[in-house]
């Protein structure tokens, strides 16, 4: 026959649970700065990718406009600036290679390079892309 301890005896021999009342607060205090850093780094990285994509689009639109016979180089640059202004990107720089696209013979390739400061859409102003220049280029043939 198997003897089991009575109900009164079962609960008496257990050790009391450890006191963990402040553990969650300490874990939060350790992890919260890291989580905040990760969130802001993700936002800055996404903004950098947005600026890069906008520069690619601007370079493409500028070179497409420059390739046309009836559009001057200055008009094409205005189109590229409008693309960037719509995306709130400040201080772009346009470079045409060769310098005078209007004088090119039909079928001659040319390149449009567009660059902007890396912090032109920064949220914090202290991100890792401050001081960097983001650049994109597009090459087309003159019509």
Automatic annotation (TrEMBL):
Top-level taxonomic group: Bacteria
Listed transmembrane segments: 21-43
All copies of domain TadE-like, residue ranges: 22-62
InterPro entries: TadE-like_dom
Alphabetized UniProt keyword annotations: Membrane, Transmembrane, Transmembrane helix
The protein, known as: TadE-like protein
Organism of derivation: Aureliella helgolandensis
Higher taxonomy: Bacteria, Pseudomonadati, Planctomycetota, Planctomycetia, Pirellulales
């Amino acid at each position: 026959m198997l003897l089991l301890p009575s109900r009164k005896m079962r609960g008496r021999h257990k050790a009391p649970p450890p006191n963990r009342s402040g553990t969650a607060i300490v874990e939060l205090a350790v992890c919260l700065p890291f989580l905040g850093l990760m969130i802001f780094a993700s936002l800055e990285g996404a903004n950098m990718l947005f600026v890069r994509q906008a520069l690619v689009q601007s370079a493409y639109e500028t070179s497409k406009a420059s390739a046309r016979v009836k559009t001057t180089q200055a008009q094409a640059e205005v189109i590229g600036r409008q693309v960037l202004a719509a995306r709130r990107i400040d201080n772009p720089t346009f470079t045409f290679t060769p310098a005078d696209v209007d004088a090119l013979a039909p079928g001659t390739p040319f390149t449009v390079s567009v660059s902007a400061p890396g912090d032109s859409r920064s949220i914090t102003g202290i991100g890792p892309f401050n001081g960097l220049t983001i650049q994109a280029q597009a090459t087309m043939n003159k019509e």
